[in-house]
Specification:
The protein is mostly helical. Helices cover about 70% and strands about 0% of the residues.
Length: about 325
């Protein structure tokens, strides 16, 4: 059925569908975060709104302008198979082996990169789908459906927002939003508060993003291996050493590692990575109560932050140029 639907769209239309999915789902999280801050910390509204503006500005600059590559039945089936494999494997390791979502996704990413290097990206994308919380009301059918949806979005969005860290998570997040709104699957509605250890969140975000970027770009390990390794270390070491708020900080480490997955074309230096990680830390703190338990939420925070940071830099340069002319 999905193949029949895709067959009715041109290459450019599929590209637009992928672009629209990522933009809409990211804005859904970011705008809701900005609006909700009106209720408990109104001083953050301008800052969160600026982050949203940066994202929208850069998204417009990323408008699809050319057809997608490899628009074929085999290309779609390949994406679907590997994303679904990553989904089911990560879910099994997380839930049935009891290793938890972060360690599970990191292990799947590392194993995928080692054994199936050509499809490591698809597998890692699927792993984020499989990170769904056991507290989310769902069954195995929802897992399979989310994996199929994520595989489809991965295929149609593969040539948009290239090089932005967190894109794979945004794809996974999109699949869970679609599943939760079209079925009886329910995401977690719980009140969480992270502001009391906000400094720790910011520090771990900055350090993890830069470490991942160095491992990926400077040391040439590639984004999947770099992010998986940093996430695995965070998921294992923080609880092992009895760190306060270990689970939350491990999530920060993983989310920030996605920022560090960005290519040099998008984030040209460690300074650019630090700026994106700063935004990511802020969004992590203030988005705590939204879409709880959805696989890919951490990646969406990273994706939106990386895109927004580039947008804000671009806007800043444009304003400076206009003032210089005047």
């Amino acid at each position: 059925m999905v193949l029949g639907v895709l067959a009715n769209y041109s290459e450019l239309e599929m590209r637009w569908l992928g672009f629209s999915s990522l933009v809409f789902m990211t804005l859904l999280l970011f705008v809701q975060t900005a609006v909700s801050s009106l209720d408990f910390e109104i001083i953050m509204v301008p800052f969160l709104s600026i982050i949203v503006v940066g994202f929208v500005w850069e998204a417009f600059r990323e408008f699809p302008s050319k057809p997608s590559s490899d628009v074929s039945l085999m290309g779609y089936v390949t994406s679907l198979v590997w994303v679904s494999a990553g989904t089911l494997t990560a879910y099994f390791v997380s839930i049935y082996l009891g290793l938890g979502a972060i360690v599970a996704a990191a292990l799947v990413g590392l194993v995928g990169a080692a054994l199936v290097k050509d499809h490591a990206v698809e597998i890692y994308c699927g792993a984020f789908v499989g990170m769904v919380s056991p507290d989310v009301l769902h069954d195995l059918g929802h897992i399979v459906l989310a994996g199929v949806i994520a595989g489809t979005i991965y295929f149609i969005a593969r040539d948009v927002f290239e090089g932005y860290g967190g894109k794979l998570g945004a794809i996974a997040f999109s699949s869970w939003i679609i599943v939760s709104t079209s079925s009886r699957c329910e995401l977690i509605d719980v009140l969480l508060e992270f502001r009391h250890f906000g400094i720790s969140i910011m520090l771990f975000s900055l350090a993890s993003a830069v470490l991942t970027y160095v491992l990926s770009i400077r040391l040439k390990n590639g984004p999947v291996v770099a992010s998986s390794l940093v996430s695995l270390l965070g998921g294992l070491l923080l609880p092992a050493f009895g760190a306060e708020n270990a689970a939350e900080l491990a999530a920060v480490v993983m989310a920030a590692s996605f920022v560090g997955m960005s290519s040099r074309e998008k984030l040209r230096s460690e300074k650019a990575v630090l700026f994106s990680a700063l935004i990511m830390g802020i969004m992590f703190i203030y988005s705590a109560n939204h879409f709880g338990g959805a696989g890919g939420k951490l990646g969406t925070l990273a994706f939106g932050s990386a895109v927004s940071s580039r947008g804000l830099v671009s806007l800043g340069k444009m304003i400076i140029r206009k003032r210089a002319v005047n």
